[in-house]
Amino acid sequence: MSIRKKKLEELELMSYTDIAYEIIKEDKKQYNTPNLFKELCDLLNLSNEEFEEKIGDFFTALTTDKRFILLDNGNWDLRNKHTLQ
């Protein structure tokens, strides 16, 4: 089921990184941190104040989650789509 079709109650049970993973996987594109977190906030109906308060923690969570890779252009993508050299 598409992440965007899940009920809010279901999304609230997921971690931010799990939601971000599903967004990138579904959209098949890379996102920079603010745009990815904005997509997530829209899904969870979070306010602009919550966006501002939580984006730093979200960035930290992405950097420590091995499913994601930060590319040279500043965008996040799924690690399994990239070979490490």
Describe the protein's architecture and organization:
By secondary structure, the protein is mostly helical. 54% of the residues lie in helices and 11% in strands. The protein has four helices and three strands, in the order ααβααββ. It has helices at 8-12, 16-27, 33-44, 48-64; strands spanning 31-32, 68-70, 75-78. Strands 1-3-2 form a three-stranded antiparallel β-sheet. A hairpin with a 4-residue loop joins strand 2 and strand 3. The chain is globular, with a radius of gyration of 13 Å. The model has no long low-confidence stretch (mean pLDDT 96).
Annotation keywords:
85 residues; single chain; mainly alpha
Describe this structure in a few short sentences:
By secondary structure, this protein is mainly α. Helix content is 54%, strand content 11%.
Please describe the biggest sheet, giving its number of strands, its sense, and whether it closes into a barrel.
Answer: 3 strands, antiparallel
Mean pLDDT level: 96
Helical amount = 40-55%
Contiguous low-pLDDT stretches (5 residues minimum) are none
State the shape: globular
Widest beta sheet: strand line-up: 1-3-2
Order of helices and strands: HHEHHEE
Number of E strands? 3
Q: How far apart are the first and last residues' alpha carbons, in Å?
A: 34 Å
What is the tally of helical segments?
4
What does the radius of gyration come to?
13 Å
Percentage of residues in DSSP E strands: 5-15%
Which structural category fits the helices and strands?
Answer: mainly alpha
Secondary structure topology:
Layout (H helix, E strand, L loop, with lengths): L7 H5 L3 H12 L3 E2 H12 L3 H17 L3 E3 L4 E4 L7
Helix pairs in contact: 2-3, 3-4
